[in-house]
Amino acid sequence: MCPQECMVPVLALWYCAGLLLSSVHLCAGVEECILGIVGQPILLPCLYHELSVNFSIEWRKDDKVVLRSVWDDKGNVETWSLNHASIPADAARSGNFSLELPAVHPREDGVHYSLFLISGENQSSPLCSVCFKVAASFSISLLKREHMAGNETTFLCHSTGGYPKPSVYWLINNTLQPPKGSVRTLTEFDLSSHFFSVTSNLTISVSKNDNVSCIVENPSMNETLRYTYKPNDDEPVQSRASEAMWIFSTGLCVVVGIMVIAGVAYQIHLDNISKRRKKEYREEKRGYRRRQQNREEDEVMTSESRETEL
Ligand SMILES: *[C@@H]1O[C@H](CO)[C@@H](O)[C@H](O)[C@H]1NC(C)=O
Ligand SMILES: *[C@@H]1O[C@H](CO)[C@@H](O)[C@H](O)[C@H]1NC(C)=O
Ligand SMILES: *[C@@H]1O[C@H](CO)[C@@H](O)[C@H](O)[C@H]1NC(C)=O
Ligand SMILES: *[C@@H]1O[C@H](CO)[C@@H](O)[C@H](O)[C@H]1NC(C)=O
Ligand SMILES: *[C@@H]1O[C@H](CO)[C@@H](O)[C@H](O)[C@H]1NC(C)=O
Ligand SMILES: *[C@@H]1O[C@H](CO)[C@@H](O)[C@H](O)[C@H]1NC(C)=O
Ligand SMILES: *[C@@H]1O[C@H](CO)[C@@H](O)[C@H](O)[C@H]1NC(C)=O
Ligand SMILES: *[C@@H]1O[C@H](CO)[C@@H](O)[C@H](O)[C@H]1NC(C)=O
């Protein structure tokens, strides 16, 4: 049916379609971007072997030189770089001019790094050009439940510290989209950290059996975070909490009770001691007084007797 001549384009088309499926870049002719994870080092690959002597190379970030290295017939003369960017020490010999950056910052998202060869007065077109894509993982999102007036419940999903902007959506029972108007999502971009944070609220009437999930997708990181609020977990958590409270308050009561009893017992003991002491003291005093009286009487008697003697 199809003549030999048309088979080639058809096959090419299929081949291209296959490639398109696996990688959009190749067939579209778009340069491939390198993904840098924020905070991690990255290698921008570049191999070039056709070198003579007396040349220099420059790695540029857009138009700004980040690394310059000069060779003459004896070897490497000097290397200068910004922010600890580096190339292999044996680059001229191995032809491996890959640029290593010690850490990726989200500010660098979308920049292009290019390697230029300068030989005498002449500057080559870029030997390598790498587009740079930056990504960072989002932190753990929380899913909270707040009871509102009426039957409605608000679920709160919070996701921070990631890059680029994620997509956030909700599912009920893992399949159903929540009704329109029930979701409010606020995405914020922090200018100083260059990170995104997302707060999404879902306010909805849910039955006791509904699963509610918040899904945060960051395709650049190949990352999907899902937090499912399982209604059945709510009760054990709550009951565990109240159980804990019960144990705590009972424990507190027991401890306070023991302390009170001990206190009362000690007080009674003290009272007994002091009563006994008082009694003893009183008895002692009474005895002393009696003895004193006797002595006084004796004295009176003796004085009287003395008087009488006189
Ligand atoms: C390289 O530069 C040195 C000094 O600048 C010069 O003596 C030498 O001839 C140059 N070599 C070539 C191949 O241009
Ligand atoms: C080029 O050098 C880098 C850094 O030393 C290394 O990780 C990489 O594997 C090298 N590439 C090749 C093709 O040798
Ligand atoms: C620079 O380029 C010009 C023209 O393209 C060429 O004639 C000349 O030989 C080149 N010089 C060097 C040092 O490569
Ligand atoms: C609560 O739900 C019941 C039944 O689902 C409904 O009749 C009632 O109007 C709801 N109340 C509010 C305040 O939404
Ligand atoms: C809710 O989530 C739990 C745990 O993931 C699952 O076992 C259960 O089948 C889910 N219920 C529904 C209705 O999707
Ligand atoms: C989500 O709800 C909380 C209180 O329920 C509110 O403070 C916050 O502004 C809401 N966020 C959005 C994005 O609607
Ligand atoms: C979710 O699943 C539960 C259990 O299967 C069911 O009782 C409930 O009606 C479902 N909710 C929705 C909105 O479909
Ligand atoms: C995402 O991760 C999965 C599992 O680790 C892997 O199979 C897939 O190739 C990754 N996709 C991309 C675009 O990195």
TrEMBL record:
Keyword Membrane: yes
Listed SUPFAM superfamilies: Immunoglobulin
Signal peptide region: 1-29
One Gene Ontology term, aspect cellular component: external side of plasma membrane
Region (Disordered): 279-310
Entry's localization field: Cell membrane
InterPro entries for the chain: CD80_C2-set, Ig-like_dom, Ig-like_dom_sf, Ig-like_fold, Ig_C1-set, T-cell_Activation_Regulation
Pfam families: C2-set_2 (PF08205)
A biological-process GO annotation: immune response
Name assigned to this protein: T-lymphocyte activation antigen CD80 isoform X1
Primary location: membrane
Transmembrane segments: 245-268
Domain called Ig-like: residue spans: 150-226
Taxonomic source organism: Austrofundulus limnaeus
Membrane disposition: Single-pass type I membrane protein
Record keywords: Cell membrane, Disulfide bond, Glycoprotein, Immunoglobulin domain, Membrane, Receptor, Signal, Transmembrane, Transmembrane helix
